[in-house]
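Please check both lines for our workbook:

___
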Amino acid sequence: VPLPGNPGCAPGVNDFRLADAQDAEELQSLSALPVPGRWIDLSYARNFDHCREQILLGRTSLGELAALALRSTPKLWRHGAPQRLGYLGGLRIDPRHQGRNLLAEGFALLRRLHEADPVEEYLATIVEGNLLARRLLVERARPSWPRFFPSGVLCTLALETQPFPFQAGPPGEGGWRQEYFPCETPEEAGERRLWLQHEGVVGCLRDLSRTRQTRVAGYHGALRWLRPTLNLWQRIWGRPQLPPAGGLLKGGYAGFVSSDGVRPRAFHGWLQRMLGMARAAGMDWLYLGLRESDPYLTTARRFRHRLYRSQVFRVRYQGKPAPLTEGSPYLELAWL
């Protein structure tokens, strides 16, 4: 895809550009590379055939796919009005090619894209404990790169689904429009979506299993040999079991969650029904993203869950962002 100021790839130079249809299979393989964890390594494979984001990729001078990242520019609520802003995510670098100036060349491509299609700022996250990413992107960033400004913490809850009666309905409109809440709710290719409203709280179950698969790549430490025993107890109590290495984690996303004011009791009832809807859809997990200062986080944590924390950043090429009254922006978890 031609870009302003992109001279192309000369012999012996890495090739950074936007992806096209011929790259889809290799991109899926790169996205599936394991992400290390303390006890479990996970793989987040994705089908890129019909991707709504811009896909930035990098190849070595020998043509090997080495890196990818995603950029999107949805319309979000900002100061009470729609504004086109950006999301940055999906960064993957093949460990075999780290240390080859890939990050700098990737940011050069991002800058060309930004200058051709500018937005005021982007939202991005770095998983807590990823010290290398924080050091490279935040602490030792080059002058030509965008600046990453910390803006709160995103708490991702992997909630265990449970049987509970529910009544799915048509898409609804919540009255509470937080800063950076999406103005539109576009469906992704292959997505199955069910909406749920309860006493002023609105949101949907996003089933993206046709295009995204989360698998266990491996276990560490005592969990490697304790897993069968743990699964026995999980089966007795009717709770999700840990699949073998290579096994699929069956889950969906809670998306576009809003409410008419702050209603903790209503949110508790809504989430209970959402977990029932996810269980009825054959899912073991519901993924819910809430900022650390969200008034509903305490309510959500009363349900059985695993908690993962990420630092939120507002990413800008010019100027410093003004403080937010809510402390951190709304983030649509499935867009990260």
About this structure: Residues 1-12 have pLDDT under 50 and may be disordered. The first helix runs from residue 24 to 31.
